[in-house]
């Protein structure tokens, strides 16, 4: 079941060379060297005080998006939406959409927090998002985390590689955003690493059939007949094209199947319902494992509407491609048990180190 197009955001401006406009800054963190308070000036640090290492910064190479790029082009020193009429199946076809998974960057020491500063021109009917994730020393990836305005991306454990993903939208027929530079800064908060989950989390979900053969998913896969993949209503667990870095086990009336997460939907696009309530991107007052659409449909949560304000017509928390849908024994929309495989053990997605 496709999720219709995202609404246009309000006007934004970003720094352009020679222009008196503010840059679009995604994420912000207080770095070492911030102004000291009066109390700090009067007290010398203890002899055994531990001085945290300085943050490390680098500028991402926007010209190298590789095979994981979706409808994106790089020219005249900026990333843009290539074709404004192309949109993934889950978002409808009335907005231009592009996604660029940038090369992973090896940091000098383990880190668990990343900030991002974006230099971009963003027209009123366009938008840009930055997500980051990290790869631990054991080769597992964290989920993607938004590096939003004023909020660094907090990763659940220390990582040695950091990867960024840029997502661009523009209204059909309207100018695309132009992303000129992305600067990332990583540091270590000094907190204890997250405790590993004893087992991968599972939930009972209402599944709908995605269909949409010939359309394109959010990671750039063109949907085929009898295809095998799943869609979840959050980009936090979206696998790069052709990979199974984030996969689910779906158990239906007939059998179970393991399928990669290649699309975003149904209904919502920021509902990582598999995460504990405090860690959910939205709907933090809902219990872990309960999709917002299900709560809206069954209990009138959020006035019975999804994140776009539409009346929720079914409690779907997962979409299944045709091959997966029929293979697990569904012939109509119905209930399945879903295990989010990347949440087990260290809570990461398996990936070989470079």
Structure write-up:
Strands 1, 4, 5, 6, 8, 9 and 10 form a 7-stranded antiparallel beta sheet that branches. Mean pLDDT is 83; it is low at 3-43. This protein is mainly β. A hairpin with a 4-residue loop joins strand 13 and strand 14 (256-264). The chain starts with 37 loop residues before the first helix and ends with a strand. The protein is globular. Helix content is 5%, strand content 34%. The longest helix is centred in the last third of the chain and has 8 residues, at 292-299. It has 3 helices and 17 strands.
Fold topology:
Blueprint: H1 38-42, E1 56-59, E2 72-75, E3 78-81, E4 95-101, E5 105-121, E6 126-135, E7 140-141, E8 145-146, E9 153-171, E10 178-187, E11 201-209, E12 230-232, E13 247-251, E14 256-264, H2 292-299, E15 316-320, H3 322-327, E16 334-340, E17 349-350
Parallel strand pairs: 11-15, 12-14
Antiparallel strand pairs: 1-10, 2-3, 4-9, 5-9, 5-10, 6-8, 6-9, 7-17, 11-16, 12-15, 13-14, 13-16
Descriptive terms for the model:
354 residues, mainly beta, 7-stranded antiparallel beta sheet, 6-stranded mixed beta barrel, 17 strands, 5% helix, disordered N terminus
């Amino acid at each position: 079941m496709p999720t219709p197009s995202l609404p246009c955001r309000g006007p934004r401006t970003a720094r352009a060379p020679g222009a008196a406009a503010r840059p679009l800054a995604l994420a912000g963190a207080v770095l070492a060297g911030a102004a000291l308070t009066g109390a700090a000036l009067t007290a010398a640090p203890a002899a055994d005080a531990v001085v945290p290492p300085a943050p490390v910064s680098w500028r991402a190479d926007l010209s190298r998006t590789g095979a994981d790029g979706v409808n994106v082009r790089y020219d005249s020193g900026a990333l843009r939406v290539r074709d404004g009429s192309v949109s993934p199946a889950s978002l409808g076809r009335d907005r231009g959409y592009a996604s660029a998974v940038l090369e992973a960057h090896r940091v000098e020491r383990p880190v668990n927090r990343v900030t991002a500063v974006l230099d971009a021109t963003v027209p009123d009917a366009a938008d840009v998002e930055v997500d980051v994730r990290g790869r631990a020393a054991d080769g597992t990836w964290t989920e993607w985390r938004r590096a939003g305005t004023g909020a660094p991306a907090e990763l659940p454990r220390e990582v040695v590689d950091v990867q960024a993903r840029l997502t661009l939208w523009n209204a059909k027929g309207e100018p695309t955003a132009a992303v000129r530079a992305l600067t990332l800064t990583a540091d270590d908060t000094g907190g204890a690493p997250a405790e590993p989950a004893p087992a991968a989390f599972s939930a009972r979900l209402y599944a709908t059939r995605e269909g949409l053969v010939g359309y394109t998913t959010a990671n750039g896969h063109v949907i085929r007949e009898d295809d095998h993949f799943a869609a979840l209503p959050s980009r936090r667990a979206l696998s790069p094209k052709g990979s199974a870095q984030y996969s689910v086990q779906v158990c239906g009336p007939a059998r179970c199947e393991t399928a990669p997460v290649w699309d975003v939907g149904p209904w919502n696009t920021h509902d990582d319902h598999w995460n504990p309530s405090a860690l959910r991107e939205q709907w933090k007052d809902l219990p872990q494992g309960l999709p917002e659409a299900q709560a809206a449909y069954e209990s009138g949560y959020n006035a019975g509407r999804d994140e776009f304000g539409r009346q929720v017509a079914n409690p779907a928390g997962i979409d299944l491609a045709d091959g997966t849908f029929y293979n697990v024994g569904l012939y109509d929309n119905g209930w399945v048990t879903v295990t989010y495989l990347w949440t087990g053990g260290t809570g990461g997605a398996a990936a070989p180190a470079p």
